[in-house]
Specification:
With 216 residues, the protein is of the alpha+beta class. The protein has helices at residues 2-62, 68-94, 100-127, 146-162, 177-185, 208-214, and strands spanning 134-140, 165-171, 193-196, 200-203.
Length: 216
């Protein structure tokens, strides 16, 4: 009788543990999807802003309207929006979203928008005077690369203290043709690597003071 009772207790305990595990996994998946959905919403808004900007730029080029102040303000706004999305994605990365496929799709859309904004800024520089901003392209490594983390902290400090620096952060190990093309163009062979104002390349970690010296 005692043995039967113990057996029933073990079965019951196992079923309870299994239920808790399945319930926890379900709740975790729901939370992940909610986070990804929020990120998707931010990306959709930024994508619309980008399309609006491109339409506006095309109109101005076609009708030979030159309004550099407007273009610079629009691209700065777009860059700031991307920066906010980047913070959201990084926060989700720290919390380890379980749905890797959806998360990778979110990151891919984000990196493509970043590359487009980076390219648009370069195009504007060819027809307009600079708005005074410094542009830094940051290739980082997500695989427990302490140097990349330290470089990110240094760049955050530069942005905070200067106020005229725009950062475009790219996961160097992310498998995306556009990312690979960008790395090939700048001959990026390791992370961290930063490109300052489209020309100056620095490989490996450099501190805030060194970065500041390279800015205009």
């Amino acid at each position: 009788m005692v043995n039967v009772f113990r057996k029933d207790m073990l079965v019951t305990s196992f079923l309870i543990a299994l239920f808790i595990f399945i319930f926890g996994f379900y709740i975790g998946s729901m939370v992940d999807e909610s986070r990804i959905s929020n990120g998707e919403e931010l990306l959709v808004i930024t994508q619309l802003d980008t399309d609006s900007f491109l339409t506006e730029k095309e109109f101005m080029n076609t009708f030979e309207v030159q309004d550099c102040s407007l273009l610079n303000n629009r691209i700065l706004e777009l860059s700031n929006n991307l920066n906010e999305i980047g913070k959201v994605i990084e926060k989700y990365n720290v919390r380890k979203i379980s749905n890797d496929k959806l998360y990778d799709q979110l990151k891919r859309k984000y990196f493509l928008l970043e590359i487009r904004a980076y390219t648009l800024r370069k195009q504007i520089l060819e027809t307009c005077e600079s708005d005074g901003s410094n542009i830094i392209l940051f290739f980082y490594d997500t695989q427990e690369n302490q140097e990349s983390l330290n470089q990110g902290y240094a760049l955050d400090s530069v942005v905070k203290n200067r106020g005229d620096v725009v950062i475009f952060s790219i996961d160097g190990g992310f498998d995306e043709p556009a990312v690979n093309s960008l790395k090939e163009y700048y001959n990026v062979e390791s992370e961290p690597t930063i490109i300052i104002n489209y020309e100056t390349k620095k490989e490996g970690y450099i501190n805030e003071e060194e970065i500041t010296k390279l800015l205009k």
